[in-house]
Amino acid sequence: QVQLVESGGGLVQAGGSLRLSCVFSGSIFGIKTMAWYRQAPGMQRELVAQISSGGTTNYADSVKGRFTMSKDEAVNAVYLQMNSLKPEDTAVYYCNVRSVFLGERNYWGQGTQVTVSS
After folding, report:
1. Which of 16, 38, 40, 64 is most open to solvent, judged by the fewest CB atoms within 10 Å of its CB?
2. What is the pLDDT of residue 8?
3. What is the C-alpha to C-alpha distance for residues 104 and 47, in angstroms, rounded to an integer?
Protein backbone atom coordinates (compact mmCIF):
# COMPACT_ATOMS: atom_id res chain seq x y z
CA GLN A 1 0.00 0.00 0.00
CA VAL A 2 1.35 3.40 -0.97
CA GLN A 3 1.66 6.01 1.75
CA LEU A 4 2.96 9.58 1.53
CA VAL A 5 3.95 11.29 4.77
CA GLU A 6 4.73 15.01 4.94
CA SER A 7 6.59 16.72 7.74
CA GLY A 8 8.31 19.99 8.48
CA GLY A 9 5.38 22.35 8.74
CA GLY A 10 4.95 24.78 11.58
CA LEU A 11 4.64 28.38 12.66
CA VAL A 12 7.21 30.87 11.44
CA GLN A 13 7.50 34.63 11.27
CA ALA A 14 7.41 36.44 7.97
CA GLY A 15 10.82 36.34 6.34
CA GLY A 16 11.64 33.01 7.92
CA SER A 17 12.27 29.61 6.39
CA LEU A 18 10.88 26.10 6.58
CA ARG A 19 11.80 22.86 4.88
CA LEU A 20 9.04 20.41 4.09
CA SER A 21 9.74 16.74 3.52
CA CYS A 22 7.62 14.04 1.95
CA VAL A 23 8.59 10.41 2.13
CA PHE A 24 6.58 7.77 0.35
CA SER A 25 6.50 4.08 1.01
CA GLY A 26 5.19 1.29 -1.11
CA SER A 27 5.80 0.75 -4.79
CA ILE A 28 4.84 3.40 -7.30
CA PHE A 29 5.63 2.55 -10.89
CA GLY A 30 5.77 4.98 -13.77
CA ILE A 31 6.19 8.17 -11.75
CA LYS A 32 5.65 11.13 -14.06
CA THR A 33 5.84 13.99 -11.61
CA MET A 34 6.12 14.75 -7.91
CA ALA A 35 4.71 17.97 -6.62
CA TRP A 36 3.77 20.17 -3.71
CA TYR A 37 0.31 21.72 -3.59
CA ARG A 38 -1.19 23.99 -1.00
CA GLN A 39 -4.67 24.92 0.10
CA ALA A 40 -5.53 27.96 2.15
CA PRO A 41 -8.87 28.22 3.99
CA GLY A 42 -11.69 28.90 1.57
CA MET A 43 -9.39 28.56 -1.43
CA GLN A 44 -8.85 25.91 -4.05
CA ARG A 45 -5.84 23.67 -3.86
CA GLU A 46 -3.06 25.11 -6.01
CA LEU A 47 0.16 23.81 -7.44
CA VAL A 48 3.23 25.25 -5.73
CA ALA A 49 6.11 23.31 -7.28
CA GLN A 50 6.57 20.28 -9.44
CA ILE A 51 9.52 18.12 -10.42
CA SER A 52 9.46 15.71 -13.33
CA SER A 53 10.99 12.27 -13.46
CA GLY A 54 13.81 13.85 -15.44
CA GLY A 55 14.45 16.46 -12.76
CA THR A 56 12.88 19.51 -14.41
CA THR A 57 11.24 21.82 -11.89
CA ASN A 58 8.39 24.28 -12.28
CA TYR A 59 7.12 26.79 -9.75
CA ALA A 60 4.08 28.90 -9.26
CA ASP A 61 4.84 32.54 -10.00
CA SER A 62 4.04 33.45 -6.41
CA VAL A 63 6.91 31.35 -5.05
CA LYS A 64 9.56 31.66 -7.75
CA GLY A 65 12.88 32.71 -6.32
CA ARG A 66 11.80 31.83 -2.78
CA PHE A 67 10.97 28.11 -2.87
CA THR A 68 13.13 25.26 -4.12
CA MET A 69 11.92 21.74 -4.71
CA SER A 70 14.27 18.77 -4.77
CA LYS A 71 14.08 15.01 -4.66
CA ASP A 72 16.11 12.10 -3.42
CA GLU A 73 15.03 9.00 -5.27
CA ALA A 74 17.28 6.79 -3.17
CA VAL A 75 15.02 7.36 -0.18
CA ASN A 76 11.75 8.07 -2.04
CA ALA A 77 11.63 11.62 -0.78
CA VAL A 78 10.88 15.08 -2.06
CA TYR A 79 11.57 18.34 -0.30
CA LEU A 80 10.42 21.91 -0.45
CA GLN A 81 12.78 24.55 0.88
CA MET A 82 10.76 27.67 1.59
CA ASN A 83 12.60 30.92 2.20
CA SER A 84 11.42 34.50 2.67
CA LEU A 85 8.06 33.24 3.77
CA LYS A 86 5.08 35.58 3.61
CA PRO A 87 1.75 35.49 5.46
CA GLU A 88 0.06 34.61 2.17
CA ASP A 89 2.05 31.37 2.11
CA THR A 90 -0.06 30.17 5.03
CA ALA A 91 -1.82 26.97 3.97
CA VAL A 92 -1.89 23.22 4.31
CA TYR A 93 0.81 21.83 2.05
CA TYR A 94 0.25 18.50 0.33
CA CYS A 95 2.68 16.16 -1.35
CA ASN A 96 1.54 14.59 -4.63
CA VAL A 97 2.93 11.82 -6.79
CA ARG A 98 1.47 11.28 -10.24
CA SER A 99 1.91 7.91 -11.86
CA VAL A 100 1.14 7.03 -15.49
CA PHE A 101 1.61 3.28 -15.09
CA LEU A 102 -1.47 1.52 -16.51
CA GLY A 103 -3.33 4.80 -16.53
CA GLU A 104 -2.97 7.98 -14.55
CA ARG A 105 -3.19 7.90 -10.79
CA ASN A 106 -2.52 10.53 -8.15
CA TYR A 107 -1.26 9.78 -4.67
CA TRP A 108 -1.61 12.34 -1.87
CA GLY A 109 -0.21 12.84 1.58
CA GLN A 110 -2.26 13.96 4.55
CA GLY A 111 -0.90 17.50 4.48
CA THR A 112 1.20 19.61 6.81
CA GLN A 113 0.19 23.03 8.12
CA VAL A 114 2.39 26.02 7.42
CA THR A 115 1.50 29.24 9.21
CA VAL A 116 3.40 32.46 8.59
CA SER A 117 2.78 35.28 11.04
CA SER A 118 3.23 38.92 10.13
Report:
1. 64
2. 98
3. 18
